[in-house]
Design brief:
Oligomer: single chain
Number of helices: 8
Strand content: 5-15%
Number of strands: 4
Structural class: alpha+beta
Shape: globular
Radius of gyration: 17 Å
Amino acid sequence: MTIEPTSASTASPHETSFPFSTLIVRPWDDPLIEKLGHDPRSPYVEKYWTSVLGPSSTLLIRRLANGLEIAPEGFELDTVAWAQELGLGIRGGKNGPFWRSLDRMARFGAAQRNGATLVVRRKLPPLNLRQIDRLPAHLQQAHRAWATRQMIRPDGPTGASSVDDAA
């Protein structure tokens, strides 16, 4: 299945030097993280993971989560169209903003890339201690408060996060 971009790509094949014109996106099966993790579109990811992944990678993983919701077994991604839709442009080849966003997702464990295959987490784990220590001070404090609230819930930590839970 191909997840179509909302607008057609206007780049000709000669205008881009992307390593691949398409990527095959597959879900990353990890039962523990899928039970305890956070949907990439959740308030937790927006509030805390954005400082780790950066805004472009966070937006990209949210869009990939949408694609995997539509096509749970995976889909073909038109790299030029997606880069344009995300406002990342098509210049720069493998060192351009789109590919750096993919690399950043892989560096922080949100995805794995092997050639033209991209395996993406459907849920992101809670931040680890090192990642929390690198957050701005106000987010470190907010994360500690969030974690404390999760631990005292009658049903224990669930991985589900509402707007109130992430605040």
